[in-house]
Amino acid sequence: MTYQSQRISHWYFKAALLLFALQVVLGLWLAINYSYTLPQSIVNVFSFATARAIHTNLLVLWMLLGFMGGTYYIVPEETQSEIYSPAIAWFQLIALVVTGVVAIVGFVFGWTQGRPLLEIPRPLDAVVVIGALLFLFNVGMTMFKANRWTVVQGTLLGGLLFLALLYLFGIPFYKNVVIDWYYWWWVIHLWVEGAWELVTGAILAFILIKTTGVDRHVVEKWLYVEIGLFLFTGIVGTGHHYYWIGAPKYWLWFGGIFSALEPLPILLMMIDTIMHVKKRKLEIKNPFTFTLAVGCAVLHMIGAGVLGLLHTLPQINYYTHGSQVTVAHGHLAFYGAYALLNFLVFYYAMPKLKGIEVYNDTKGKIAFWTMSSAMSLMAVTFGIAGVVQSYVERMLGMGYMTAQHYMRLWFEVTLVLGIFFFIGMLFMVYDLFTLKPAKVKK
Ligand code: HEM
Ligand code: HEM
Ligand SMILES: [Fe+2]
Fold it and tell me: Is the CB of 30 under 6 A from ligand 2?
């Protein structure tokens, strides 16, 4: 750590880790809901829908806090200057965490907009927008004042701006449900397959430049290519969500073709990351960071690229739409692309923020392998449940609850895997909160 104001990011990371822990607990609760028939008295007070809303909103919140913390860590080093206003950064962290907590408590009491992933009510949306504007202002001002532009900075700022703008489309409620869903996807799809990919590209490029010592131009060159491809395929690829909502028919073609091309930039990103890492592996002090970078690249590819491709064509999506196949993809894509990216940032920056050069990475490795294996297998079990569901509901035409009966075994296995994931998560959270310098041999 070179700049004092980078310290703020440490608090963003700590908040993100605690919210992640809570998210996983709710994931276990959801799996229990699917595996057992709960007493109605519990369902009346704390329904599946409420738990699901908390699980997914916490996911979005902790990841955004991680990205913001990452940005506050990276920007001073890239611009070679302190953050424009540390006070704004503090205010914004507190405002977002308080909003998150109020939203979760609100969900339990039925204060919700009802639209999946964007359940938080309108007044809280206003706080989020103010928080996002302050964040952009702070980051933008730091960059403009320093005036030492790099591709990493430009991509990061562009991605964050895009991210904030898209959120606005999720705020109004349209009476026509088709239009409402149409714009809902602008937030959901264009976030994870557009804006967040840009932020990921920038953060990954920064960490690779710093840890491998590879020439900046080499990394920046592929950043251009990937960004172009992500935007080209991702924006029109939104059409893979317009097949069955009442949007015009041509989306079957546009959505199918462009989204089928989406794995391409992800594949490129994977190849590039592995190439850079391979070249420089031996000289690096904390090779665990590389395990995370490669893990992120590979599981991003499998979760988003491969599992996404599997159900992106309308001919297949007709049967799997909204089934547990979608859940399988949603989990491994979010975990591979964005959870692991966040863990990479945490393990890269948190030791530095504590002034630790080399740390003992045993607990981190146990956590990484446990969580990654459990989540990969969960994608398989959710996936099997989804295939069973698609067959029983859509080929045989049986009812929703009849299909649940045939799927239950796979939810029970998911629950067991979820417990392993939970243990891995505990290892990581404990490890990151208690990092100490390793005794270096030599
Ligand atoms: C890191 C990137 C990605 C993430 C985090 C992600 C996550 C998700 C999530 C959470 C959903 C469920 C949304 C809902 O219905 O509530 C979803 C749906 C979907 N994703 Fe992705 N995704 C990513 C990339 C991709 C890519 C690259 C493709 C195509 C190649 C793809 C294809 C799809 C399709 C077709 C659906 C709709 C499934 C349905 O009809 O039920 N995704 N994605
Ligand atoms: C112990 C670990 C976890 C378990 C057992 C679990 C379980 C579940 C369950 C049962 C659902 C509801 C699916 C439905 O509506 O039918 C769900 C939703 C979801 N979870 Fe998890 N989860 C866990 C961890 C995670 C993690 C770590 C992430 C992200 C990195 C995540 C991301 C999501 C997403 C994006 C959805 C919405 C999926 C969709 O709409 O298709 N979960 N989870
Ligand atoms: Fe999508």
Answer: yes
